[in-house]
User: Fold these one by one.
Assistant:
Number 1:
Amino acid sequence: MIASVLVANRGEIACRILRTVRRLGMRGIAVYHFADRNAPHVAMADEALELTGSVPTAAYLDQAQIIQACLRAGVDSVHPGYGFLAENAAFAEAVAAAGLVFVGPDADTIRLMGDKIASRNFARAQNVPVAPSATDEGDPTAFLRQAAAIGFPLLIKASAGGGGKGMKIVRSADELQENIRVAASEALRYFGDGRVYAEKLVEAPRHIEVQVLGDGEGSVIHLHERECSIQRRHQKVIEEAPAPRLPPSVKNAICDAAVRLATAARYRNAGTIEFILGADGAFYFLEMNTRLQVEHPVTEEIVGLDLVEEQLRIADGKGLSRRQDEIRISGHSIEVRICAEQPERDFRPATGVCGVLRWPADARVEAGVAEGQEVTAAFDSMLAKIITTGSTRLEAADRMKHALDEFVLLGVPNNADYLARIVAHEAFREGRLDTNFLVEHSADLLPAQRAPEPAAILAALMADAGFRRVVDDVPALHAAIGRWRN
């Protein structure tokens, strides 16, 4: 039986996993780079082991060093979270070779679903809808001809890609060859794999994904769908469950397709199958994420399951805790991503030290930062997630607006005000969503604003009791510098 878990990650997802591990009475082990020595996940763990690396991210990607940490700590299992090594087949193999349990699918499944060309072919073989496409099989002339035959606009995508890298929109034959070259070059630079394919571009689609759980023996259930259409440059900004204004027939078809695909793959553990949905109701397989998603809390909120607990249960060989007919939706849940960025400056990443930090009282918060912690450019800009749930979608949206108005973070520029304007926007409240939402409504969401006056910032700081205590604890200048004078 699994009794201890090393979390091979950092930030909010490490805290999230450790919370469930501790609730289940297991021993939770954290790893950290020196830059994260004061991070919340380090304090939460029963034991924390330092990793070394030339840069912070290198430490969290060092497979051999993490395996050695597991052996030193004497753990039974490794939970990869998301990002870093979560979808690395070689890491899953290394964990198994060390005699440890990898909390996720097996390496072959990760390898299959991580290759977008192979996974699309697999989905097509299971009668899961896939957008018309063409693949570069080593004959550039044939690839150009086949891609053009699909019709424009087209989307050129990297086989090993993600996050919008190696992705180009082509609207005419004149642009095709150059965009293929640029996409392939970008894919090689970011992923070490220059293979690309072309597919029909669905203009301003909705992005719908389905959470699945599989026992690895052929039993798979879905936990309904999530709406992830509020995106900026192919990066999700706001997610919710269930998807609003989704006809039952389309919802059922999408969920059935997800289960069909995961069942054929004999999928084990938690996974997410993503689709794009056109205005005409046609949907197409996009990709499968063989890990826990950033947005998993909204699913937990509406179905009443702890997905990390389910992951550990499946990894421990105990199978699924529920049958499909036992999964019921209750209410509606919305999640926003709090990021260290400046929306008014083209979303430029921000850094700083978290001064005053106040979380909303009536919301679920998944955070990876604390007061006094430095936010650097070494990691992803996401600091935390705020999740609100209501009996209806509008109630969840109202609670989110209130939560964002309550949230305070001084010292690090962030996107909370921008998120508040999104959830308060009429089109969002009506559920009129697609992946072009932020561009279409940019004039409403990014009004010209003056930076806060320094006096206003100082007044806000001095009004905070925690900040005043910190100030009072600072010694007088002459006492601080000792005998030295100038």
Number 2:
Amino acid sequence: MNKAIISILGQDRPGIIAAVSDLILRQDGNIENVSQTILQSEFSAIFIVTLPESLALEQLRAALQAGLAPLEQHVHVKPVHPGPPIYVPSPDREPFVITTRGPDRKGLVARITAVMARYGVNVTNLQAVFKGGEAPGDNVMIYEVDIPATIDQKQLRNDLRVEADALDLDISIQHRHIFEALNRI
């Protein structure tokens, strides 16, 4: 099986996903997974696709680059290497949501995620909105994480709170099920 990861980056505009998915289809490819978002005015998407064995990744990249040229998108294509993944999450882990709110400054993400990394916490999704200016309380980071069941969660919570206090951040740590129940729209 020939698998690839495709990333697309550029100014947002209507029709990008339609163009990318059509170009993949024209190469006889199939989209298995996709994650897409708009960051400020920038479009970003990552696709995992299966492709015919006969299709070289350079051919795919060239077809995508040519087809997306009118939309001024940047394309990167990389193979998905067969074999076992480098990181295999422990089956004994719990999903949590960690949110921080406070003034924007350099190093917020680096310092909070460094604490998580020391405990083997895996960040599965991160959203950060930094508005700066007059309302520093509008600066929010939402980390969806998997916390290994084998760690000392009380110590992790304490270390995260210490780091958040040093950064003048409010922090909330909730099991994902509780977060979802409280934040249902």
Number 3:
Amino acid sequence: MVDFRFYVITAENIEKGYSHLDLAQAAIKGGVTLIQFREKNKSTRELLEIGFKLRELTFRAKIPLIVNDRLDIALAIGSEGIHIGQEDMPLTIARKLLGPKKIIGVSARNIQEAIEAERSGADYLGVGPIFETPSKEDAGEPIGCQTLRAIKNKVRIPVVAVGGVNLANLEEIFLAGADGVAVISAITGQADMVKAAKEMREKIDKFLMRKG
């Protein structure tokens, strides 16, 4: 069973001085339960170099590593799975290439996309953006917690809320039925990334304990 409650998507920022590995290390120290490697602007060789290092890091920490979009990178580094968007490789083809045991997540913005992803064999959904987000320029208009709740009510697979997630709106998201949250800027936007991750994990756990 995969623990989706606290999902961190890696990013790097040369100006601020952090890399994919820096964020992953901080997230692991802070209690992350799942990590996704997402990078759109590097060569395949660079992706492999970073990917192998992330794989070593997550393997030691016993945390699943998901690769965004790039199935070739996922296969090469031996990650636990991939995450694909609506414009990426079709899920059915990805499943044939990856096999039945790998995790495949799919992005969904509405009920139709969510139902189709589940029907095609997705293991979980990344639903959003829930709120406005500075981390993804092409994320589109926020769909809000009402749509999140509607999607959760229509599918049986785990739903991870993404986009604009922070400490202030965590409870609203989980009350809407989310099984977990995925973040970038909620961690990278803070001076102390380890502290930010710990605070988010603590708040998630406290809320889920009360809810459960």
Number 4:
Amino acid sequence: MAKEKMSKREMLREKRRKEQQRNRLIAIGLIGLGALLLAFLLIFPNIQATRSIVLPAPLPRPMADRNAMGDPNAPIRIVEFSDFQCPYCRRFFENTEPALVETYVKTGKVYFIYRSMGNFLSDNIARASGTINSESRDSAMAAYCAADQGKFWEYHDALFANQTGEGIGAFSEARLRAIAQKLGLNMSEFNTCFNSGKYRQQVEQDYQDGIAAGVDGTPAFVITYTVKGETKTQMIKGAQPFSAFQQTIESILKEIGQ
């Protein structure tokens, strides 16, 4: 009788042991599945970001030097205040800039500089507080980081080519890194630059200088030149066609006697 009772106890213990073992295996399996799911969630967006990046045909930039191109001693200087999220800025990049570069930058008549205004919120309160859409700020910072590796304009072009809307993740950190990777940048150097916020102050300075110059929207082009020792300034606002730039530049060249 004792042996029978002992046998039942042992059977009960064995049953409990097996249940505990099964529960442990289930727990381990769930943990493993969770780890795989987490890895997938972390990796998949980066894979998707990389796959969706397109690189436009390269546009020759004569005498490119970081965010500038052309002869620094050219008689006319044009500073573009832009925003990588701005659809009108993209329109200028696609429809006007190539002809401007070919006709005036390449021929030594215009020195062209790109500066980022960033997509600051339009209401007065936001402007007063310096609120900025982070994707505009981050994309500008990333472009300046690319400049450290001699690829500002390549990154500039890739940003506009991959623009899909404002503040919707088109220039998330994952996509900004994916663009850098697609362009063949040294990712260790790029990440160090971007993560440190190395060019945050420069982006802020771009904005402040734009405001000081009277820029109230993007794109805007501040044109400076000198006539008989006097520096003059003009501004072209908006994504104007090449003809508008041509008319202004030809008029200035005539005024300075070139």
